[in-house]
Amino acid sequence: MSSISNSFNISASGLTSQRLRMDVISSNIANADTTRASVVNGQAVPYKRKMVVMSTNETSNFADVLQSKMTGSSQATGEGVKVSEITEDTSPLKPVYDPTHPDADENGYVYYPNVDTTKEMIDMISATRSYEANVTAFNAAKSIFSKALQIGK
């Protein structure tokens, strides 16, 4: 019973993490042309691309999990994933010469965010596929649990 509920928890953590990843990607796409996300010392600071960093929720390392599975022990089990942090991309901003733009510097350059919409769309497809895989895994576990309950009738 606990392994089935554990599989629900693992899928749920994946769903939650991928949903947050899709939200961050959506924010990146929405701000792809934002030249004034904030103002520091009178200068416009453009939006900077955000990235989601995920890590395992496990308290055990891989070797411990592998050994426990090989020996049939149930001490170390996977516990899903979590978002450990949301970081800013440190790649350079995109300078565009436009001296008429209100955010242009003294040389006439406007700095646009370091967001590549093509890359963001690829990341969105990846996050969507991962989300769908977690839904499929959740539904499979639910089906197994339902069949197990029917056996007892």
UniProtKB/TrEMBL annotation:
Keywords: Bacterial flagellum, Cell projection, Cilium, Flagellum. Its main location: other. It comes from the Bacteria. It is found in: Bacterial flagellum basal body. Residues 107-151 form the Flagellar basal-body/hook protein C-terminal domain. InterPro entries: Flag_bb_rod_N (IPR001444), Flagellar_basal_body_rod_CS (IPR019776), Flg_bb/hook_C_dom (IPR010930), FlgC (IPR006299). Residues 9-37 form the Flagellar basal body rod protein N-terminal domain. The basal body constitutes a major portion of the flagellar organelle and consists of four rings (L,P,S, and M) mounted on a central rod. The rod consists of about 26 subunits of FlgG in the distal portion, and FlgB, FlgC and FlgF are thought to build up the proximal portion of the rod with about 6 subunits each. Belongs to the flagella basal body rod proteins family. PANTHER family: FLAGELLAR BASAL-BODY ROD PROTEIN FLGC, FLAGELLAR PROTEIN. This is Flagellar basal-body rod protein FlgC.
